[in-house]
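TA notes, week 10

Several of you asked for a full example with nothing omitted. So below is the full record: structure tokens for the whole chain, then the designed sequence directly under it. When grading your own attempts, check the secondary structure regions first.
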């Protein structure tokens, strides 16, 4: 009995303590709830904006302290990728946002209560190959990764049509959709499309002849004549990378070819060489290994032209894991060689050629994976006779006719699947 009485008294004494504990726990719960609410309301922080690539392919990376869960959409005029994010505090340095490669402008800011927006403006049409949010393996936070690829107006419009048929915007790419897809079949009614690339331009004058003729002037004059001759047939859709004296990066020339879904890309040049007795035309196709020292030296000179405008961007080597892309490259290279041989045959009937006129080297301007491409050296301006011919409208007319004939044969073969 005494024992039971002691337990009752002990329980009575603990009643106020239990009430205080409950009050303390309630206060802690409310404080924690308030802290969580504040954390939910606090904006994300975004930092370390990076872009890498060129005018044909760009990767954009942005780090967040929390998971951003973006939605994105495409807009035209100009071509833009718009990313809508939860409210975000952008801690970015202006130097990180400078135009680079395919991306010519980056903007960001507050959109509405609880939302922010990041806008990437492109030099031309593009496709979104990948848009992912990945958890950082080596630290806290997440990173947004966007891969953009230069495309044609048709491909961009197709992406807009898909967008309008769904929700008007999409979320980050589902993992099941991150594999590459084969390009849509080309429209059989589409005319054979040619992009002519007059080498050099603007502050990059290229080679200079003994009488002061600049390569950029010769290449533009010839390209305009060739375009007029091709257009007069009514068989082709013909474009030029430049139609005036302006500087263009090498990757921009490739981007333009891909933008027009070119069936053939012809880059026009006229070089100089130390041995002034050497003359005649040469046709180059791309290769990782040069055919000879002269071809390698020429490729190095041409590939360094971007430095003249202080715009050199060290390109990342894109490791091609997709077997489809590898097959496309091989097929494109095969078509390039086929056209080069046909072109040499036509030129040999009208203008002089050097010995071993089909050569190859690692020209950046010929590296579009899906556009058959050649670089034509019309002659050597270091040779007085070649320079005189390059300035002669009659000679240029004969050379343009030969190239036009080679194009006609190549286009006819492609139309029947050859």
């Amino acid at each position: 009995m005494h024992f039971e009485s002691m337990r009752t008294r002990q329980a009575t004494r603990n009643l106020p303590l239990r009430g205080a504990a409950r009050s303390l726990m309630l206060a802690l719960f409310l404080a924690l709830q308030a802290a969580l609410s504040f954390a939910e309301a606090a904006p994300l922080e975004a930092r370390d904006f990076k872009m890498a690539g060129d005018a044909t392919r760009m990767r954009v990376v942005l780090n967040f302290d929390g998971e951003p869960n973006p939605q994105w959409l495409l807009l035209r005029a100009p071509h833009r990728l718009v990313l809508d994010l939860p409210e975000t505090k952008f801690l970015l340095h202006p130097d990180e946002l400078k135009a680079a490669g395919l991306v010519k402008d980056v903007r960001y800011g507050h959109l509405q209560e609880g939302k922010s927006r990041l806008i990437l403006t492109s030099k031309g049409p593009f496709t979104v190959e990948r848009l992912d949010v990945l958890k950082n393996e080596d630290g806290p936070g997440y990173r947004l990764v966007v891969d953009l690829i230069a495309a044609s107006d048709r491909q961009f419009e197709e992406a807009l049509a898909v967008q309008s048929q769904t929700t008007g915007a999409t979320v980050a790419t589902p993992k099941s959709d991150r594999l590459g897809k084969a390009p849509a079949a080309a429209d059989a009614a589409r005319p054979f499309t040619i992009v002519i690339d007059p080498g050099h331009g603007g502050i990059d004058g290229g080679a200079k002849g003994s009488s002061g003729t600049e390569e950029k002037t010769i290449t533009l004059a010839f390209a305009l004549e060739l375009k007029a001759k091709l257009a007069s047939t009514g068989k082709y859709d013909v474009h030029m990378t430049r139609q005036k004296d302006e500087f263009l990066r090498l990757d921009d020339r490739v981007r333009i070819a891909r933008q027009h879904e070119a069936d053939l890309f012809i880059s026009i040049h006229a070089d100089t060489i130390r041995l002034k007795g050497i003359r005649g035309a040469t046709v180059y196709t791309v290769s990782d290994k040069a055919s000879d020292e002269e071809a390698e030296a020429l490729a190095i000179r041409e590939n360094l032209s971007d430095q003249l405008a202080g715009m050199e961007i060290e390109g990342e080597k894109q490791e091609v894991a997709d077997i489809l892309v590898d097959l496309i490259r091989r097929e494109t290279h095969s078509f390039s060689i086929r056209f080069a041989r046909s072109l040499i045959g036509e030129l040999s009937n009208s203008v002089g050629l050097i010995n071993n006129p089909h050569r190859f080297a690692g020209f950046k301007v010929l590296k579009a994976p899906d556009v058959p491409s050649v670089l034509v050296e019309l002659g050597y301006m270091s040779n007085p006779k070649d320079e005189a011919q390059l300035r002669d409208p009659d000679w240029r007319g004969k050379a343009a006719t030969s190239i036009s004939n080679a194009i006609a044969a190549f286009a006819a073969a492609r139309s029947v699947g050859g």
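The chain has two domains: 44-177, 192-415. Use that as a sanity check on your answer.
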